Amino acid sequence: MAGWKARRQPFAFAALLPTLVVLSAAVDTLAPGDRLEDGSSLVSSDGSFKLGFFTPGKSNFRYLGISYNQTADQTVVWVSNRDTPLPDKTGVLSISTNGSLFLSDSKGIIYWSTSSTRLAGPVAKLLDDGNFVVAGTGEGGYAWQSFDHPTDSLLPGMKLWTDPRTGFARNATSWKSDDDPGTGDYTSFLDTNGDPQIFLLKGTKLVWRSGPWIGKGFSGIPEMWINVEFNSSFVSNADEAYYLFSRRSKSVLSRLVVQPKGVTEHRVWIESKGDWNVFWSGPRDRCDEFGYCGSFGVCDANETPLCSCLQGFEPNSPDNWKLRDGTDGCRRRTALDCQNGTDGFVLVANTNLPDTSMALVNENMGTEECWEACLRNCSCTAYAIAAIIDGGRSRCIQWSTALTDLRVYADGGQNLFVRLARADLALSSSKRKRRRIVTAVSAAAAVLVGILLAGLVARFIRQRRKSSNTVVLGNFPIVKSNAWKEEMSRSRELDLPLFELAAIAVATNHFSNDNLLGEGGFGPVYKGRLEGKQEVAVKRLAKSSSQGVEQFMNEVRLIAKLQHRNLVRLLGCCVDGEERMLVYEYMPNGSLDSFIFNKNKGALLDWATRWRIIMGVARGLLYLHQDSRLRIIHRDLKAGNVLLDDSMNPKISDFGMAHIIPGDEIEGKTRRVVGTYGYMSPEYAMDGTFSVKSDVFSFGVLVLEIISGRKNRGILHSDPNLNLLAYAWRLWEEGKGLELVDSSLGYPISMAEVLKGIEIALLCVQDLPEDRPEMAAVVLMLGGDRAPPPHPKQPEFVAARGRSEDSSSSKGPTCTVNDVTISAVHGR
Ligand SMILES: *[C@@H]1O[C@H](CO)[C@@H](O)[C@H](O)[C@H]1NC(C)=O
Ligand SMILES: *[C@@H]1O[C@H](CO)[C@@H](O)[C@H](O)[C@H]1NC(C)=O
Ligand SMILES: *[C@@H]1O[C@H](CO)[C@@H](O)[C@H](O)[C@H]1NC(C)=O
Ligand SMILES: *[C@@H]1O[C@H](CO)[C@@H](O)[C@H](O)[C@H]1NC(C)=O
Ligand SMILES: *[C@@H]1O[C@H](CO)[C@@H](O)[C@H](O)[C@H]1NC(C)=O
Ligand SMILES: *[C@@H]1O[C@H](CO)[C@@H](O)[C@H](O)[C@H]1NC(C)=O
Q1: Span 593-825: which CATH code?
Q2: pLDDT one-digit tens code per residue, 318-331
Q3: Which amino acid residue places its CA nearest to atom 13 of ligand 4?
Q4: Band (380; pLDDT cuts 50, 70, 90)
Q5: Which of 96, 157, 300, 720 is deepest in the core (most CB within 10 A)?
Q6: Atom of ligand 6 nearest to the CA of 378
Q7: 680 alpha carbon to ligand 1 midpoint, in Å?
Q8: What architecture (CATH level 2) is domain 447-585?
Q9: Which ligand neighbours the alpha carbon of 51 most closely?
Q10: Where in the chain is the domain with CATH 3.30.200.20?
Q11: Which pairs with CB-CB distance under 8 Å and at least 24 residues apart come from 381-384?
């Protein structure tokens, strides 16, 4: 017996004592009349598992359980009488003719039993997978099986199971200690609220959660994402939810076990070592402890201190945070402003998604729809797309509560988009934050990035182990340095000055927030002063995506060739490591939208100035469309992209999305729609067809906005207060065009110019591209050098969309947000 008590063998099966055994050792079945006495055991037919009596560790009691037959340590995976131990070795297992199993002792006291069955000829059998079942002679499944009654372990094929309707759950609960298989403190439980997750509970207290299922594994168990040895599956529907794993090879012994010390482990038997290895465990570090950094806090195991607040949040109790206690969590710096539609999202990459037990899940909702749903729902605090790798399904998870138990990983992990007020969206200057929490500078960029991520996830998963300095957003390496160098040598051929990073850092006061001018399409824009005292605007490309880099190059190449007084001038660029920057001439008066949509500043732009701006934008656009050597479609013309110099002359900016049309083609088609709702022409928004006429449409919207001082909230909006186009058309048709004029405008106002402007704008926003004039004609009409313009048609599209549901519009944007640049993918 001494040998059995060796330190490496905490559980000892009774040595075969000379007792009156009815069963021989090689039997796997117990029939009515058979007696399995202490000292004998059932062994499954292939010898994998055995069922018998044992005494764990230093215990004085006897238990009936199932253990591996092959492993030297006799690991017990199931116990029948965990809370009702036998005091001596007189225990007997038997099965009655009605199928009940009984564990009793010599005095006839019953320590454990199962209910009876109506199945004919019931026998109990230990199967090769470790399942002990009661089955009839005919068909009809099992009357009872040990797999339905886990103790502390899940074997391959065994389900951690919950009925979402009744809440009934088959949990795994730890032993009290290594010496006592009694029901212990820790329970592993599949919680089906929100997006289902496995919880590890201590009593009723949540100590660890697996995170939601993301296709290959759980969001909070990185080891599962790449594992190929285990075939995990997860099912969740109205009737049941369960997690189970299977082994690819029968020779691999593995089990999931809840340890008395409070950790869930997936263990794998290593034959050569003769011991168990831990494949994954939870919690495995402090960051895994539930809610370690409180609400809106982020835990990063590679940082000191572990906790930080999400961008846009500050500690609730700074003193406790200094003492490294983050459990109080964080609060928002700036209140959200959902009503005004100015909120955006910051991307937190590589996360274990926050607790999803209160989250809202929409199956088959794509990135764009998810973003839009969250943006529109004022109670939505964050969203994420999960399980896109699982058979192409895209699941939208939205949170409406505080975000708790959020951690980030060095690589891999999910992308979480957290809602922030506009003021908090600026790119964080802290190096540390930039590495992991990449600001998508506006709702715009967030969505763009989201879409890119969706497309790149597969690749990103494959490459996730590579962590290198070239890795940018979401940690997928996208910057191909050689291609980049080639591009740069080409840009040298363009004779474009290249600035040193150091020079730009000095010029912008190290990109200080005080120098932040705003956010362009692909990154923040800083004001700077070069050594020669020249003021410049530096656009720092958000370290985001391959698309961003491409667009950066696009912009460099385009703008270097463009010279027009109504286009913003590129002075040079800067490339250093991951940094890509564009240096522009500085526009002291900022962008047009900050004037026309602001009642106070709007008064500074009198009618004559507004008219000059309309003319200037028209000329700049004409240059792009016709007069430059290239034929360029801007694709994102809007008030925010029209900058004003010190004399209020307009200059079109942001060519990152511009598209060169080769040769004489005048139309193109794209799967990627980029642009801004409210300015996008119907054919572009719906089909991705763009042409110079889609810019004409945007120009028309811009003119109406300049005249009215109102934003066009969306081309698809039925509410006339929001749909500027329908509103303008109605007023104009009723002969009340002057009512459209911005009330903050002082006199004098040229009535003739106002009416001409409205009429031309309405011509530009007609539904059919062929009905819209070319910019050349627009410039002529504005200049008055032409016969009265033709009568514009009513923008039917606008009205019709508002009223009826069109099935073809289901893929189309229905957003009402005006001032964010969006990107949508068509034809997926
Ligand atoms: C149980 O395991 C032992 C040792 O691995 C082995 O010798 C024996 O054959 C197994 N029992 C059966 C019935 O296969
Ligand atoms: C099943 O058989 C056992 C033993 O014979 C008996 O104690 C028990 O009451 C029976 N159960 C039913 C439901 O008949
Ligand atoms: C499993 O655990 C959950 C959570 O503690 C509990 O609600 C449920 O009743 C448990 N199920 C069983 C069968 O004990
Ligand atoms: C993996 O699991 C799935 C679903 O449970 C099953 O269809 C498939 O056959 C399994 N593959 C292997 C190799 O076990
Ligand atoms: C919306 O914007 C207006 C003007 O900028 C501001 O006064 C108001 O407080 C904003 N609404 C909310 C809910 O913040
Ligand atoms: C907004 O979010 C809340 C909380 O998730 C949800 O209950 C509500 O149905 C949502 N509203 C809409 C219109 O989706």
Answers
A1: 1.10.510.10
A2: 888 877 787 889 99
A3: 248
A4: very high
A5: 300
A6: 1
A7: 74
A8: 2-Layer Sandwich (3.30)
A9: 1
A10: 447-585
A11: 381/418, 381/419, 382/345, 382/354, 382/416, 382/417, 382/418, 382/419, 383/345, 383/416, 383/417, 384/353, 384/414, 384/415, 384/416, 384/417
